[in-house]
Task: structure prediction
Amino acid sequence: MGMRFEGKVAVVTGAGSGIGAATALGFAAEGAAVAVNDIDSDTADKTVAEILAAGGKAMSIACDISNTAEVEAAAAEVVSKFGQIDILVNNAGMPSAAPAEEYTQFERVMAVNLGGAFHWAKAAAVQSMIGNRSGSIINISSLAGLAAIASDVGYTSTKHGLIGLTKALALDWAPYGIRVNCVAPGLTNSLMVAEAIEQFPEFMKTRIGRIPIGRVAEPLDQAKAIMFLASDDAAYITGVTIPVDGGQMAMNSGYSPTR
Ligand SMILES: NC(=O)c1ccc[n+]([C@@H]2O[C@H](COP(=O)([O-])OP(=O)(O)OC[C@H]3O[C@@H](n4cnc5c(N)ncnc54)[C@H](O)[C@@H]3O)[C@@H](O)[C@H]2O)c1
Result:
């Protein structure tokens, strides 16, 4: 694959674990200097240490992405230490769970999943990308951005919102050479999914049985799609959402994947 991101600077939010960590490591392995954000500074530091140990370049910018002032300060720190921001991956996100009539987390989930992505995009654009007439932003939605997940009105609404945010930013910033795209992961092997498989083996077996490709995604499957969108190979792609879901959205018909 070569070193597609030599000389580039990438910010990855929620990069202390899962998809974000795999993405941060992937960008670093292909030459980018990576700014690692997470609300948990210990896990952010761990990802930074892994990148440094592999001979890469990284810094920690741990903060809560729902705090706009902290996001602006973190972006400034990246520009001051690494010189610019070429790539932003808005990956941090939180699930929640309650039927709509009992749901109390709406404001918090909006502020993190959707607000955090917008404020990071604006900070990266204003502080670096617009002036440089260049940039690539990738928002991480979910299949919950394309269809609903029961008992999670906040997650479903914000993940749909991220697809709209992607289109709106793509229009506003195309004149500045900034591309904005979105990845919608299907079930991906994170800590949470591993725990669910252990706790509810039968339920999860049925759930995984509905994935045409027949397995959950690995974080690296998502990272590879994210890196493609960030790379020059995607130079003419902006405003789109790519499901990386093993074929799930292709069979949203109520039927099982096999006869
Ligand atoms: N794993 C899946 O099956 C799956 C499927 C679809 C979409 N996604 C999305 O992919 C993204 C990454 O999820 P993951 O599966 O790797 O989960 P994860 O829990 O391993 O990673 C999410 C990271 O975001 C961080 N985070 C949470 N709130 C934050 C905040 N306010 N500020 C900064 N960081 C914060 C967490 O500390 C965590 O390290 C999320 O947006 C999630 O909604 C995941």
